[in-house]
Amino acid sequence: MSRTLIRKDPNAFKTLPLFVEADPDGLAYSSLGRPLNFREMLERRTTIEIEDNQRFAVELANLGVSVRLTLNWQGRDYWVLVRQRRADRGDVVLKLISGYVPAHELNLPLLTAIQEVAEECLMETPEGWLAGRFGETWLPTPYQGVLHYREAVNFRLGSLSGAARPVRCSNLTLLERPRAYVHLPTASLQLVYDMRMELPKEVKQLSLFHADECLEDGTLVARLDRSKPDLYLIALEDGKPTAELLTLKKGELSPASTRGVWLAESFAAQDGWVVRDERIRWKDWAKSQQLKAPTAKSPAKPKPAGAADFKQPQARQG
Question: What does pTM read for this prediction?
Answer without folding.
Answer: 0.90
